Amino acid sequence: MYSGNRIRSIAAGLVLLLMLTGSGARALAAAGEETGAHRTTVLVYLCGGDLERFFGAATDDIREMAASGFDSRYTNLLIMTGDMQGRKDSPAAGKTAVIELGAHGMRTLWHSEETLNMADGQTLKAFLDYGHARAPAERYALILWGHGGGAEEGLFFDGQPGGDSLTLQEIRTALSESFPAKEKLSWIGFDACLMATLETARAAADYADVLIASQAREESSGWNYSFLRGLERDADGEETGRRIVDAYFADGAEKEEIRTLSCIRLDRIDRVRAEADRYFTAAIPPVTDEGFAAFREACRQVCSFGLTEDAEPELVDLVSLSEAWEPVPGCGEALRASVREAVACSRANREGANGLSVIWHE
Fold this sequence. Notes:
The protein is an alpha/beta fold. Helices cover 30% and strands 23% of the residues. It is built from 11 helices and 14 strands. The strands form 3 sheets. It has a 9-stranded mixed sheet, with helices on both faces. β8, α6 (198-204) and β9 form a beta-alpha-beta unit. α8 packs antiparallel against α11.
């Protein structure tokens, strides 16, 4: 997501341990009492940052989740909040906390007296461990909420210690060291800018069935969380993903801002990667000034995305690029077919957005 120019008590029977990580940040580790398995547990890893400070966007989305009408008999919803400075009425304002929404309303299960670094992968891992133990379910989902800077910058780069960001590698490591390594997430979602990339999909592919993310920047308001209502009726992550995409476009579909959202089948990403390798091997011309200039111009003309409107694009749509630049006839056909097979659902109000981008550098 972007903003303007850029973008306690402990529940009975619950034990929370605080541990020092190698980086010196404090991470959460938990063992929770079983409360009876639900159908789905949604874990929301939410870093408020300047989206909260300037717009109260994190608080608004938490309240939107609570008001969605989801059935807490079947769905657990746990939110880890961080960097929540700003609104005084914000849940766990100024604290790193775990909040539960459900039959009890909104309640804080745990909070830290110190601010934890949400851009530390070990903090994410601890939340995954905690959520899995505290809220057992038939299936699990993870939403990462906050600023997104694409596959290179990662998440939460605003307001973190030393300008830290949560990288794709840190996300992958956290997933590999927690329950998704053995019990895949039904879906993983990025309510953040620029995260519907081949690189993001590759990082998540071993640990989730479906990825939901945007190729473009998102407004500070982010997703429409009305999709939580009826979650228990979804057959799988793909069905949920389609509803997330539809809800996003039902909320302000006619706005002028560029909007995209994709639901991507992660079991098809290996093929996309292989076909992308073949395409770029065939399509990138010899390294001459003239040859590369033609390729660079093609990248500038196709559907692309970046953190700012007037900067060189950081990401290009894979299908759009392979249609516009095919110096070897037919070299992009297999790539386009693989992307269309992997993207289960994609909507956009921008021509040429087909659901999956790749990093582009000058």
